[in-house]
Amino acid sequence: MAEPVVLLPGMMCDARLFAPQMADLSRERAVMVAPITQGERIEEIASGLLDVLPERFALAGLSMGGIVAMEVLRRAPGRVTRLALMDTNPLAETPQSAAQYEPLIIGAKAGRLDEMITQMIRPDFLAPGAGRAEVLALVRQMAADLGPEVFVRQVRALQRRRDNQAALRRCKVPALVLCGANDGLTPVKRHRFMAELIPQASLCILEGAGHLPTLEAPGEVCRALREWLVVADGAK
Known about the structure:
The chain contains twelve helices and six strands. It is of the alpha/beta class.
């Protein structure tokens, strides 16, 4: 049987972020969405996931999910059969950028979670078009369902995240680096940089999508993931 696929959602998102991809990929293989809601450090989140994930699996993460995916790869490279990084960032926060998260934590604790989410996922992070408002509404709903305690834990984890460049250079499995061309949060040039770091990486830039291409361009993401899942080990 084909290896299972593990999907890691972005910050304050759940399985709804990957609904189109789950429906498509689950026709032929086991697909699961693993939450990244436990722990105030990326290392802690990854360690908890490895306790419950299959022995070997294909791993795909979007945004914060991609950051966790890189940590999973660093900790257990022999368990990851292939890696997909979508609209994410391999770099650590600087002290200055980490400090900029503090008002978000204060706001969430004060009962203004929706306002904080609106600040973190701005409309200009997504591609323009009729579907943008619907995607943003879903993001706000997922965040409201997860709640402020999860928000605070995830912000703390992002503040403290490590640099993952070395882990990507050591990656020995087929990799997909995917980004929406209109991503206003993690730009295309960052993804070109990641693809250059990984020995067996292919780069996919999706026109008409921004930071959340799984919802903005679901069909294109499904096709890219299907191609990634059939790339033979050792292919460039």
